[in-house]
Amino acid sequence: MRFALLAMLLTSSAFAQERVTLFNGTDLKGWVAEGASDYKVGDETKQVWTVNKEGHIFCDGKGFGFLRYDAQKFADFTFHVEFKLQPKCNSGLGFRTPVFDPKRSTATRPSFASYEIQIIDDAGKPANKHSTGSLYRYVAPNVNAHKPAGEWNTMEITCKGPNVTIVFNGEKIIDIDQSKIPELKDKPRDGFVCLQNHGGKIEFKNLWVQVTK
After folding, report:
1. C-alpha dihedral sign at 104, 109, 112, 118
2. Which of 135, 161, 165, 208 has the maximal Cβ count within 10 Å?
């Protein structure tokens, strides 16, 4: 009886938590580029988003747009990302976001339609609503925990209903209930996750989502 109960609990836990690996380290299967996706160098066409020789997602920083994980939407989850930017880079992470339409940019980009977490080369600077780790234009992080350009950073975004928590390099920097913030109360509670290109080079690795059901 004891073993049967333990088996039931383990099975229940497995169903309650599902880890989705977003990036296989080889190609961009499951992802779609939105907005700027390629650019010209002489007669050669190059891709903005590629997989580099280290097996990381690499953004070349040309134009403006997103790399969105198109295979699945997420509602309650933890989104894990590791990133390393080069000097002067401007990037970000989108979550619970819709499909981006360049013709309706303001209405469909994450920072308006849902949430964008800012990533920018600002290590050592004061935290504000536009600094790394902010819910861009809405909520400042408690602290700017960003490491200098060239070093790896780890960010985890956890969403459960209206509650949004962000842990950055081991520090809890945001913990909110969107239903209690007028500017955020009507934000969607499910959607896609994405990476942003807003100028500058950046790498991403170890991308996964732990889904809570």
Report:
1. negative
2. 135
